Amino acid sequence: MLSLTDRGRGLVAQVLADRHAEIATIVSRLPADRRAGLVEALRALTDAADEPPVARRPAPPPEPSAP
Questions:
Q1: Helices then strands (H, E): number in the chain?
Q2: What's the start-to-end Cα distance of the chain, in Å?
């Protein structure tokens, strides 16, 4: 049987945290009304995939619109 070392678990945790941060950054670029729908859909997707719950974090501030 194989299992992750502490270092391996730390790496997986870091990769997941980085992925969640990148998704949050991308989602913050959406208008608020579209963002809410997307977040709900992503939660449904992770529930269907039996992904472990992710601690809720405040969303990053929206990026300024391009001139």
A1: 2, 0
A2: 56
